[in-house]
Amino acid sequence: MDRLGRLNEMLKANPADNFLQHALALEYIKAGNDAAAKSVFENILSNDPGYTGSYYHLAKLLERTGEKEAALQWYEKGMVAARAAGDNHALGELRAAYDDLIDD
Fold first, then answer.
1. pLDDT range class, residue 104, cuts 50, 70, 90
2. Domain containing 60 — which CATH number?
């Protein structure tokens, strides 16, 4: 069974596991299925806005697919969530990616 299959099997047992969902979204990106990855990231963040790691990856996906304004919005939401969580590492990564995109 491939990684996508294993992750889907694990998610059947624990569908609310954000870590597994996040890993699934990253696997979808590797497989070239941006639409599925986007949907999973959006699901994670709608259910748990404090899951800061997904903001960066969702915004990067949007940036790569030419959705600059949406990417900027997700970076901004992520910075708010990272500040609220006291996650300075995530905040720094989000801020740097946001600033790079603004400068383009």
1. confident
2. 1.25.40.10
